Amino acid sequence: MDGFRHVLQRDLRLAFRQGMDAFMAVTFFIIAGALFPLGVGPEPGVLARIAGGVIWVNALLAVLLSLDRLFQQDYEDGSLELLVLSPASLEVTVLAKAAAHWLTTGLPLIAASPILAILLNLPPEGYVILLAAMALGTPSLSLIGAVGAALSLGARRGGVLMSLLVLPLYIPVLIFGVAAVDAAVLGLTARPHLLFLGAILAAALPLSPWTAAAALRQATE
Amino acid sequence: MPDCLSGEDLSCIRGERLVFTKLTFRLEAGEALVLRGPNGSGKSSLLRLIAGLGRPTTGAIAWNGADIARDRAAHRARVAYAGHADAIKAALTVEENFRFWSELRGGGPEPIAALARLGLDRHANIPGRFLSSGERRRLALATLAASGADVWLLDEPTVGLDAASLSALEGLLAAHLREGGMVVLSTHVDLALGGATTLDLGDFTVARPDAQPDALQGAV
């Protein structure tokens, strides 16, 4: 597991030195969310009704925007070849990079989601479940995103290709994430939806490093 | 019996073009193989195949007679590769760059001493973005030299190096060979490597169908 720690440390250090990247994903998240009261109108009932969905869709898009950070730079400067060739397991390396991505993107999004919830007039009952659903859902977004980012390396217009690959895979997280918040707002139990989010994460944890590693080997051939 | 790295009947297709074919080589511990040949003759492709990035179209590369594709993890542990790209992060200092790769291989020598071998010790705290291209190459070579791997694969390591660094590199290569290591490198300049075998990849390329034969050009 030493390899995990070294890659995680390096990616976190790089993210902090190039602080703008992580900052931009969160800023996008809040600004795009703040557009909805302007677009839909300030009717509190309407905003409260769509708040959960808007927060989740924005989180998806903010994560999507930051995914090229995962492998693109390493691919361009030759680091990726050395990572593929290093004795450390490539699957563990991918897991470490996804963890670093979540810590610098997913975690700030979770922290910023109450701000967006206030802007969108989310009923108070929804806050705790929103945070819980984000905590369970955003790691899956980083993991699934790693597969898309690895598959689109070297492609022309890789960013667009990555969106087409990743967004359909994000739908289950979106559905259960929004359903959990809606259930809490309506006074129903959010437990089954949170369990589904947990199940998606449990499946993504082993599967996506394995898939992304295979894609990275392909990309460096 | 000394360790042995060999390639048997190798061919490589890149982008629908047959780069080389029927290529065979054999290398024992303490020996160096110098790849020469015109641009596009497949020097880099061969080095990548030996490193384990991709598989040859035909033939196999073997370590002590066993195909390297059968145990990738063992092969990764014994091979260190320095390609055209220097794999240097602009935001990390020279020492941090070095330390990351060395720790990923399970820890190597003390960074400053290892960097000093290519005259980079005074630059240890400089961020990668301020390095010149020659210094970047020296950092990549220092990282490779500290890898502890048996087989060094270097793709045109001399590019951008000044005379002093060139002789430092020759010293590192000679020391590695004396310790029973192997070196495969491609180069367009002459490096002083005692007892190196030269492999001219031009001998294994196939005439390109689009190339004009001399006779035809003479006729026009």
Describe the protein's architecture and organization.
- The complex is a heterodimer of chains A (221) and B (220).
- Chain A has 221 residues and is an all-alpha fold.
- Chain A has one domain.
- Helix content of chain A is 84%, strand content 0%.
- Chain A has helices at 2-17, 20-40, 44-66, 72-77, 79-85, 90-119, 126-151, 158-185, 191-219.
- Chain A starts with a helix and ends with a helix.
- The model of chain A has no long low-confidence stretch (mean pLDDT 93).
- Chain B is globular.
- The N and C termini of chain B lie far apart (58 Å).
- In chain B, a hairpin with a 2-residue loop joins β4 (58-63) and β5.
- The longest helix of chain B has 16 residues, at 163-178.
- In chain B, the strands form two sheets. In chain B, strands 6-7-8-3-9 form a five-stranded parallel sheet, with helices on both faces.
- Chain B is 31% helix and 25% strand.
- Chain B is α/β, with parallel strands linked by helices and 220 residues long.
- Chain B has a single domain (4-219), classed as Rossmann fold (3-Layer(aba) Sandwich).
- Chains A and B meet through α1, α4 and α5 of A and α2, β6 and α3 of B.
Mean pLDDT of chain A: 93
- Count of helix runs of chain B: 7
How many separate helices of chain A? 9
Given this structure, which CATH class of chain B is correct? Alpha Beta
The SS-based structural class of chain A is: mainly alpha
Largest sheet of chain B: 5 strands, parallel
Termini gap of chain A: 26 Å
Multimer state: heterodimer
State the CATH topology of chain B. Answer: Rossmann fold
Topology:
The complex is a heterodimer of chains A (221) and B (220).
Chain A: H1 2-17, H2 20-40, H3 44-66, H4 72-77, H5 79-85, H6 90-119, H7 126-151, H8 158-185, H9 191-219
Helix pairs in contact in A: 1-6, 2-3, 2-6, 3-6, 3-7, 3-8, 6-7, 6-9, 7-8, 7-9, 8-9
Chain B: E1 4-14, E2 17-28, E3 32-36, H1 43-51, E4 58-63, E5 66-67, H2 72-78, E6 79-82, H3 94-104, H4 111-116, H5 133-145, E7 151-155, H6 163-178, E8 182-186, E9 197-200, H7 214-219
Parallel strand pairs in B: 3-8, 3-9, 6-7, 7-8
Antiparallel strand pairs in B: 1-2, 1-4, 4-5
Helix pairs in contact in B: 3-5
